[in-house]
Each structure stands twice: as structure tokens, then as C-alpha cells.
Amino acid sequence: MTLKSFIHEAISPWMKNEGPESDIVISSRVRLARNLEHVPYPIAASPDQLAEVVNQAGELIGDGSHDRFGRLSLVPMEELTSNEKRILVEKHLVSPNLTEEKENRAVILSEDESLSVMVNEEDHFRIQCLLSGFQLEQGMACANDMDDWMEEKLDFAFDERRGYLTSCPTNVGTGLRSSVMMHLPALVLTKQLNRILPAINQLGLVVRGIYGEGSEALGNLYQISNQTTLGGEEADIIKDLSSVVSQLIQHERDARDQLLEQSRLKLEDKIYRSYGILSYSRRMETKEAMERLSDVRLGIDLGIIEEVSGGILNELMVITQPGFLQQYAGRSLTPAERDERRASLIRERINLENTEEISDGGADA
């Protein structure tokens, strides 16, 4: 399989679109936690009870079609290899928790993978919508659409005073977790982010790494999400998060302008050094790859690098992860082999970009 065809098959269709503010906001995610009435939560349910939840999920999607989301598929986790599970995590379609070696777990996926519904993770159902760029309100509408459709056929645990009941008390109420993935290299370079993060936390929001709770902020990518779900309306939660994200976007833009005005040569040197290393390196660990790709993406967004498309960061931050590297190789790889393959894949992707640029230029001429 060529790299071009692998990227086409590997990258979720929603990731190929450029949403609003996509130079800073990589993606928006809205997740709703729901549980069935009169069925113990997954942590306390018996195998038979968990199996019944999966069966109800299968009956829910029926022939696999939905007016908004198109074809839906139920994927039992126990039918996947460990690497296939890892890939679902790397694509942010499921949590690491869902991939643990336990029976009667599944995920419902839409054809474009903008919708995923985890079955028997911490809650019976976790509805998740992913969209490119800054689209929290659209993500909320997407999640609500699926929630309403499911609630027509299923009885969810709901209390008139507390709202939706969930396994974790912090999710009780709306059951809503909304987040955005942001690329904030200029705030990191100007050392402003460490000053801003405590203020964000005081507003009832939380900042996490690329894969959520407990993960590292690789490549200057940060998830900003709400913490409070009880006592508020869904629209207010989305509005509050959107307000903070809008301010962060402006702070990042101001920091980028500051770097261009005060340290342009130093910035260009950093960006082109990373571009050169990515273009010629023979070994590359995940952390360094993400840092170098962040530099190049910043250079693209600032117009310093013009021969490479901005979507290259979205693609490479996914397909250079361990699961995808092994999928592309067609076998398990040792850490050293993954580092070698990662560098080779990045070189090949940059070369593919340059070749297409030359080809396009020739066609125009």
C-alpha cells in the first residue's frame, strides 16, 4: 500500500476538513454520558448484564443507518487485535479504558468517524462527536441529535433534581464533557501559557494533554474542557468554554505576532531546523516528532513555509503514533524499529507533498 492510499484510509474523513480557526483549534469534541435505567453501572454489572447492554446497542442501530450520521457500525472490542484497539485510541475514537481486556465492550461508529458511542466504558453509553476546528455548538447539536435518537428507544437513568445519573459523580447532571484540541506553540515559546493555565483552572475548566486525563501535552497540543456538569445548562457550559477558547485564540495570535516582530530570525531558524530534521532524519522518537511537527505547522500558519499544506500536522500526528506505524508496516515493531519507521514515514510524506507541489506547478504552467 502506498503512503497516499494509507493516509486516505487511515485518517478519519472529518479530519480532512478545515473548520473555523483551524490554524489554532485542531478539533472540537462533545461527549454525553448516559446509563440505562435499572441496569447496574459497568463497574458493578455482571457479564450477562453487560452483554445485554451490547445487545441493546446492536438492536438500537438496527440496519445500521441514521438520517444524520449515515451508516452506523457496532464494533465489539474483543474482536479487535491489541493494535487495532490502539489505533482507535490514537484516532481519539475511544478511550484507553475501553481497550482494557474485558468482555462485553463495544463502540458504535459512523462512516465518517465524526460520531462514536462507547458501550460499557465507565458508563453504559458515551456519545462523542468530533469536528474539525472550533465548532463546539455544532458538536453539541450533533451529540444531542444522537442522544435524542437513542432516548426514543432506550430508558436512560434520570433524576428530576440531579439530572442524568452517571458512574462518576463529576459527570452527574448534564453528563456533558466538551473540549477543544488547541495548538499553542507561540504561548509556549513566549512562556505565557504557564501564567494563563491557573486562570483557566479557576474558571472551572481543565487543561490536559493530547489523549486526555493523565496524558502529556505533546507537540504543544492541549485539550481544554469543562469540569462542571451539575447545576448548569448544556448551552451555558458550551458558552463558557467557547468564551475561554476565543480568548486563548486571541492570546495565541498576539503571541505569534510578538514572535514575528521581536524574534523573527530566531523563529525562522527554529522552524527551518525542524523542517530540515524531519526531512532527513533516520530515527525519530514520538516526542521529538511531535515537537518538530509543531514547529513546521507554526511555520506554515505564519506563511514562513509555503510549500507544505497545513493538514500535514493533522495527518502525521496520527499516523506516526505506534499503532499506525505497526499497521503501515504490517507487523509488530520494536521501539527502535518504530523510531526508524517514523522517520522514514515523515520523510516520505514530506517528499509526497513536494512531488505533488511540483506536479501541480507543472500542470498550471
TrEMBL record:
- InterPro entries on file: Arg_Kinase (IPR023660), ATP-guanido_PTrfase (IPR000749), ATP-guanido_PTrfase_AS (IPR022415), ATP-guanido_PTrfase_cat (IPR022414), Gln_synth/guanido_kin_cat_dom (IPR014746)
Reactions performed catalytically: L-arginyl-[protein] + ATP = N(omega)-phospho-L-arginyl-[protein] + ADP + H(+)
Q: What is its EC number?
A: 2.7.14.1
All copies of domain Phosphagen kinase C-terminal, residue ranges: 24-255
As annotated in the record, motif RDXXRA motif of the pArg binding pocket involved in allosteric regulation runs over: 338-343
* Alphabetized GO MF terms: ATP binding; creatine kinase activity; protein arginine kinase activity
- What NCBIfam families does the entry give? PRK01059.1-4, PRK01059.1-5
Query: Which family does this protein fall into?
Result: Belongs to the ATP:guanido phosphotransferase family.
Protein name per the record: Protein-arginine kinase
Q: Which organism is it from?
A: Alkalicoccus urumqiensis
